[in-house]
Design brief:
Blueprint: H1 2-7, H2 13-55, H3 60-81
Length: 82
């Protein structure tokens, strides 16, 4: 009885595929959100760090981090929040 429930017997093959596709899509979207946030902070924080070193203004690094975080959150809202 347990083997039949775990193997998906009694389900049509297209239902199993649909469930797996939905799970994969959900996992892809779940990984996209922290990826946007981390990449935004890294990219704009790195740009702020480089500009801060070049111009001698130490405050550009945290400004870049905050701007990258805000921009990434805006992109997450555009993609997943509407």
């Amino acid at each position: 009885m347990v083997r039949a429930a775990m193997s998906g017997e009694g389900r049509r093959p297209d239902e199993t595929w649909r469930d797996e596709a939905e799970q994969r899509r959900f996992a892809d979207e779940a990984w996209a959100i922290p990826s946007y946030i981390l990449s935004g902070m890294l990219a704009y924080g790195g740009i702020g760090w480089l500009l801060g070193k070049w111009l001698g203004i130490a405050a550009l690094f945290p400004i870049g981090l905050v701007f990258g975080l805000l921009f990434a959150m805006y992109l997450v809202y555009l993609r997943h929040g509407r």
